Each structure stands twice: as C-alpha cells, then as structure tokens.
Amino acid sequence: MPKQTQPLFTIGYEQTPAKAVLDELQSAGVKLLVDVRAIAASRRPGFSKTQLAAGLDERGIGYVHLRGLGTPKEGRLAARSGDVAALTRIYGAHLGTPQAREEMDELAALVKTAGPVCLLCYERDHRQCHRRFIAEIIAERDHVAVENLEAPQV
C-alpha cells in the first residue's frame, strides 16, 4: 500500500463568520486553502476572493482559486434546490472537461507538496456539496485521508 500523505481537509462557510472559519483552518494546521467555487465572490463578509486571501495571509495560510473545479451554474441551481442527483450528474460531466481535469491534477500536486490543504466552498454540509466529489477523487487516486471541518455557526 502506498504511503499516506497529509490529510485533505474540506470546509464550507454557510452561516459561519469568517473569523470562525479562519480559526478552524488555523487550528487544523492548514497551510493552503484551495477555493473550489466557480465564482470567488460572496455576500458574506470576508469570503470574497481578495478579503479571504488577506485574512488567510494574516494567519500564514496560502490561497489558491481553482475556478475550473467550481460547479457550473446549473449545478449550483440543483444544489440550492436540494437535488443532489442532478448535482451529481451535472458535476460529473463537468469533471470530464479539460479545465477541470487540468485543475484536478494541479490540486493533486498541491496536496502532495503544499499540505495540509483544505478545499473551501459555500455549502456547510460536505455531503450536499461538489467538494465531496473532488475530495473523493483525490482520496482514491492519491491515497489521501479526507477530513471535513466545521466551524461554529452564527
């Protein structure tokens, strides 16, 4: 069996203040946050790309946005409506695109070299979010353990 690397973390920020997410990442020992939102903008304070990167930098955590691993608009709509089957189908097709495959390889390299790494998206419950699929692929492909973090809600 291949040697296991550092864990791959995931976290969602739904109903969670930025400070709580940053505290959770720091507590877990995360060194790099990989934003897997298609659009790195948020109405929630502290979670738009520039603000998030600055808050992470203050804590010594790096930031990378892999837009190509984000969910296409129709997948986000399916997720919002709770249609996990549609999300699975739509996102599965998306993962076959050249950009998604290239960014999945980039993520795998980061997990091996820049870890511990954490995937970030909006959805609090990883079972209802596309980041679960990303984490499962990396876990299986690269023999990485996945740990889903949850910061305290507001």
Task: Summarize the structure in words.
- Helices cover 44% and strands 14% of the residues.
- Helix 3 packs antiparallel against helix 4.
- It has 154 residues and is α/β, with parallel strands linked by helices.
- It has one domain: Protein-Tyrosine Phosphatase, Chain A, CATH 3.90.190.
- It has a 5-stranded parallel beta sheet, with helices on both faces.
Q: Which regions are unreliable across 5 or more consecutive residues at pLDDT < 50?
A: none
| Strand elements, count | 5
Task: Tally the helices.
Answer: 6
What is the CATH topology assignment? Answer: Protein-Tyrosine Phosphatase, Chain A
SSE pattern:
EHEHEHHHEHE
Helix content range:
40-55%
Characterize the largest beta sheet: strand count, sense, and whether it forms a barrel.
5 strands, parallel
Using only C-alpha atoms, the radius of gyration works out to 14 Å
Number of spatially distinct domains? 1
Features:
alpha/beta; five-stranded parallel β-sheet; 5 strands; Protein-Tyrosine Phosphatase, Chain A; 44% helix; 154 residues
Write the layout of secondary structure elements.
Elements: E1 8-12, H1 18-28, E2 32-35, H2 49-58, E3 62-65, H3 73-80, H4 84-94, H5 98-113, E4 117-121, H6 131-142, E5 146-148
Parallel strand pairs: 1-4, 1-5, 2-3, 2-4
Overview in brief:
By secondary structure, the protein is an alpha/beta fold.
